[in-house]
Write a structure and sequence with these properties.
CATH architecture: Alpha-Beta Complex
GO molecular function, one term: transferase activity
Protein name: Galactosyltransferase-like protein
Distance between the termini: 39 Å
Pfam families: Glyco_transf_7C
Organism: Amycolatopsis echigonensis
Strand content: 15-25%
Keywords: Transferase
Number of strands: 8
CATH topology: Spore Coat Polysaccharide Biosynthesis Protein SpsA, Chain A
Shape: globular
Number of domains: 1
Radius of gyration: 17 Å
Largest sheet: 5 strands, mixed
Length: about 210
Amino acid sequence: MATAVIVPWGTDNGPRERVWTAVRKLWEQTDCDLIVAADPLFAQRGKFSVSRAVNQAVRLAPPEYDRFVIFGADQLPCVRTVEWAAAELDSQPWTLLFDRGFGLSEADTNRWLEDGYRIEPPFTELFSSPCVGPVAFTRATFEKVGGFDERYEGWGYEDVDLWYRLQRDVPRTAAQNYPGTPLVQFWHPVTHHDLSQANPNVRLFAKTWG
C-alpha cells in the first residue's frame, strides 16, 4: 500500500501563489506522491473549503493509497515527517505531525523565495504545542469519521473539528508522540483570520462542540 501527501490549494493570485509555486516545486523534487487538492465548489461559492478539497482528494485517490498526510500550501515540505507519519500509521489510526514550529516574517519569506529556498534560523517561534492542521490518517479512519465536515468553508476550525472527531470516534491506542521536526510556516496575509462570531465557522464550531 502507499502514502500520499495532500496539499489543499486555491489561489489568491497574490503572495500565497508565489509561495505555493516554490513549495510545490520542492514537493515535486522529493519521492513523495503529491496530490494537490482543489475545492470543486471554490469558483461557485467564492470561499475555499479545505474540507471539500481534502474529502474529494481522498475519495478520488487510487485505492492503493491507504495513508494520507496533510500539509498546508504555505508550509515547508518535510520528507522526514512524512516518512515518520507513514510508519506511525502502521500501528495508529491517525497522528498529528508537529509539536513545535516557527513562522517566517514577510521579509524572511521573500528572502527565502529570492535566495534559492534556504532557511536560516532563528525565526520568531510560532508555537510550542501540538498543531492540528497538519495531520495523517489511514483511509479507513477517514471514512469512519466521515472525512472533514464540509459545512466549514473559508478560514478556520475545520481542522480542529476533525481532530475532535478523530479523538472521539477512532482514538489512538498509544499517547501522541512526534518526530521532533519543526513546522516551518511561510508568511501570508492574515486579514481573513477572523476569530469573532462574525465568522460562520466560529459559530458552527461552538454550536457543534460547545
